[in-house]
User: Which sequence fits this backbone?
């Protein structure tokens, strides 16, 4: 396949995706048959499941993301001591990898903590609403 053919296929695919997105956006903005009401619902168990997945990823990444660190550092130092420029390049690559893994760990922890807090806050709000706005409590204001 020539470059022109490949480019043509890529443009056609991109146009099709864009048209589909536009149709979805138009359906959402015009109400899509449901008078603008959203049919998207997220429950506390859903949020908790996503939070748990983020926590699991955090723990796996915490171990797997750094397992080659000591060997990489030793190899980088050895190469640098022998005046190979690849020693400093290897260390730079490791340092970049390490900082990216740390950023991912931070993001996973943030997602987990935020979703856990959301679930707890929602449950507390529901309990408060049920307690403060029970039918008996509301009835006494209309007597």
Assistant:
């Amino acid at each position: 396949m020539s470059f022109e053919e490949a480019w043509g296929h890529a443009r056609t695919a991109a146009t099709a995706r864009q048209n589909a997105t536009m149709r979805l956006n138009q359906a959402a903005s015009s109400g899509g048959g449901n008078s603008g009401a959203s049919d998207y619902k997220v429950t506390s168990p859903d949020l908790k499941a996503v939070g748990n997945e983020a926590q699991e990823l955090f723990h796996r990444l915490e171990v797997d993301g750094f397992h080659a660190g000591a060997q990489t550092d030793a190899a980088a130092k050895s190469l640098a001591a022998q005046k190979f420029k690849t020693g400093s390049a290897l260390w730079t690559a490791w340092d970049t990898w390490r900082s990216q893994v740390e950023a991912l760990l931070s993001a996973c922890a943030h997602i987990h903590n935020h979703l856990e807090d959301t679930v707890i806050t929602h449950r507390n709000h529901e309990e408060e609403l049920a307690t403060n706005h029970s039918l008996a409590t509301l009835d006494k204001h209309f007597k």
Summary: The CA atoms of residues 48 and 117 lie 10 Å apart. Residues 27-36 have pLDDT under 50 and may be disordered.
